[in-house]
Amino acid sequence: MIEINANTQKTFGEITETWNPVIGCNHQCAYCWAVRLARKLASMGVEPYSSNGFRPTLLPQRLNKRFRRGSTVFVCDMGDLFGDWVPEEWIRSIIDVVRGQPHVRFMFLTKNPNRYLRFGNEFPMNVVLAATIESNRDYGLSRAPKPSERIEAMKALKHPYKGVVVEPIIDFDDYFIRALMDIRPIFVYVGYDNYGCRLPEPPLSKTMILMATLREFTDVRTGTLRMAWYEFRDRDSFR
């Protein structure tokens, strides 16, 4: 089974399909959509979620997947392949598949980009290495490495094709813009929370300034752009 869901397609418009040879995550992010989807699929009896829930799991039968020439594949949108709990042999088995299909573009996304550094030059050139960095501030909404650690890891990463996902966007300091510039990503994706989690969001005006500045040096892609949830509340209070 290949999960292609509306959230993934909305976030990465150029993605043609997703591929989940490893599922599950232990970051326990307060706003995680994937764990909600996994629970829903489990309640419907859909494997492997009905058996394993959202526990990190290798599905070796999926390593035989071959993709159409010119495809862009999001790898492991239903988990974090580079979480510290994932065995290196799982990761290398996936990199081997990616290396064997140079006519296909693959994108990895993690909240633990420091682990990218451990694999050095093992990543082929048909890979985009991306990190979710919602802010430069640590609000304690996840067990993932702190945003400041993710920023430094992405700065240190020498791979030429890097991306940053600022979704769900969380309020940030002016330093955040400089930090994103220093990463030198080929794209930055920006979007607000879609699930009513009442996160500490920046006002929309601040986000628009961030995006305008980012466009001066990289491709900016957008998801949901709206006023912060409290801006709706404050606006309604004056009516």
What would you say about this model in short?
With 239 residues, the chain is an alpha/beta fold. It has eight helices and nine strands. The radius of gyration is 18 Å and the shape is globular.
Question: Would you write up a description of this structure?
Answer:
With 239 residues, the chain is α/β, with parallel strands linked by helices. The chain has one domain (6-237): Alpha-Beta Barrel (TIM Barrel), CATH 3.20.20. The protein is 30% helix and 15% strand. It has 8 helices and 9 strands. It has helices spanning 6-11, 33-43, 49-52, 88-99, 147-156, 175-183, 204-214, 229-237; strands at residues 17-19, 22-23, 57-58, 72-75, 105-110, 127-132, 162-166, 187-190, 219-222. It has a 7-stranded parallel beta sheet with strand order 1-4-5-6-7-8-9. β4 (72-75), α4 and β5 form a beta-alpha-beta unit. α5 packs parallel to α6 (175-183). The protein is globular. The termini are far apart. The model is unreliable at 1-12 (pLDDT under 50).
CATH top level label: Alpha Beta
Query: Helicity, in percent?
Result: 25-40%
Mean pLDDT: 92
Spatially, the strands of the biggest sheet line up as 1-4-5-6-7-8-9
Low-confidence stretches: 1-12
Order of helices and strands: HEEHHEEHEEHEHEHEH
CATH architecture: Alpha-Beta Barrel
What's the story with the biggest beta sheet?
7 strands, parallel
